[in-house]
């Protein structure tokens, strides 16, 4: 899953990016509304953390521009504790949730997980595909009750496929949603990670749809 953080306070921005990357997300960042609006309009993010008090273009205007342009990704806004009006303005502009500053990182991560699973149509933190269970809160994958050790890129890949289980995902979509801006994007690496995942999982839940991409589905007869 690929996220965008738009926050002008560089310390808070860095803390957010570090926590999100540690939680298994690919993360891009922006420090003003102008840059954030451009990235949100041109890159396919799964969710955005957006500060309301931004230089150049304020957060509400950025969000309104995204929605007017048809961008539907979930947006979590950050507001100052005493600015209830920011919350109202943010929701009116199209926000999905908010966190007030100062905030607890665990709460922000939990709210983001909730936004991501609702956007994909899931009700809980646990995603299930045949014998494979993925706990988005713990960042853990188990097969038939046995934990599977994955690299960060392998985890992002299986998490994206399982969030969208049953839908064929092209290699280009996987590349766009698994890597941040600065990553050397070579779609051939997806095939490498798919091969590693299949070997580590030991079960046939990742199907290749020739000419189209990959789909996470329970094994035949499961």
Residues in helix, % = 40-55%
In the CATH scheme, the class of the largest domain would be Alpha Beta
Task: Return the string of H and E elements.
Answer: EHEHEHEHEHEEEEHHHEE
Query: What is the spatial order of strands in the main beta sheet?
Result: 2-1-3-4-5
- Average pLDDT works out at 92
Report the sheet with the most strands, covering strand number, pairing sense and barrel closure: 5 strands, parallel
Total count of helical runs of at least 4 residues: 8
Strand content: 15-25%
Stretches where pLDDT falls below 50 for ≥5 residues?
Answer: none
CATH topology-level name of the largest domain: Rossmann fold
Tell me the name of the CATH homologous superfamily of the largest domain: Response regulator
CATH architecture of the largest domain: 3-Layer(aba) Sandwich
Q: How many structurally independent domains?
A: 2
Question: What structural class do the secondary elements suggest?
Answer: alpha/beta
Alpha-carbon Rg, integer: 18 Å
- Distance N to C terminus: 27 Å
Indicate the overall shape. elongated
Number of strands: 11
What is this structure, in a nutshell?
By secondary structure, the chain is of the alpha/beta class. The chain contains eight helices and eleven strands. The model has no long low-confidence stretch (mean pLDDT 92).
Description:
- The chain is α/β, with parallel strands linked by helices and 222 residues long.
- The protein has 2 domains: 2-119, Rossmann fold; 126-216, Orthogonal Bundle (Arc Repressor Mutant, subunit A).
- It has helices spanning 10-22, 33-42, 59-68, 84-93, 105-119, 152-163, 171-178, 188-201; strands spanning 2-6, 26-30, 47-51, 75-80, 97-101, 126-129, 132-135, 140-143, 146-148, 206-209, 213-216.
- This is Response regulator transcription factor.
- InterPro entries: CheY-like_superfamily, OmpR/PhoB-type_DNA-bd, Sig_transdc_resp-reg_C-effctor, Sig_transdc_resp-reg_receiver, WalR-like, WH-like_DNA-bd_sf.
- Keywords: DNA-binding, Phosphoprotein.
- The modification 4-aspartylphosphate is found at residue 51.
């Amino acid at each position: 899953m690929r996220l965008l953080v738009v926050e002008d306070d560089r310390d808070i921005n860095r803390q957010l990016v570090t926590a999100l990357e540690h939680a298994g997300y690919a993360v891009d960042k922006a420090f003003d509304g102008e840059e954030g609006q451009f990235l949100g309009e041109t890159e396919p993010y799964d969710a955005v953390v957006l500060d309301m008090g931004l230089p150049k273009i304020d957060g509400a205007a950025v969000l309104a521009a995204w929605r007017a342009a048809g961008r539907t990704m979930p947006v979590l806004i950050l507001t100052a504790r005493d600015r209830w009006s920011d919350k109202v303005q943010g929701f009116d502009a199209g926000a999905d949730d908010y966190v007030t500053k100062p905030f607890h990182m665990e709460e922000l991560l939990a709210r983001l997980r909730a936004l991501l699973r609702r956007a994909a149509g899931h009700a809980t933190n646990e995603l299930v595909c045949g014998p494979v269970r993925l706990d988005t809160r713990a960042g853990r994958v188990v097969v038939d009750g046995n934990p599977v050790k994955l690299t960060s890129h392998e985890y992002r890949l299986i998490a994206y496929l399982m969030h969208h289980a049953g839908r064929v995902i092209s290699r280009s979509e996987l590349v766009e949603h698994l890597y941040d801006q600065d990553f050397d994007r070579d779609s051939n690496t997806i095939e490498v990670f798919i091969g590693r995942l299949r070997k580590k999982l030991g079960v046939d839940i990742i199907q290749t749809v020739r000419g189209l991409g990959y789909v996470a589905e329970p094994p035949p007869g499961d």
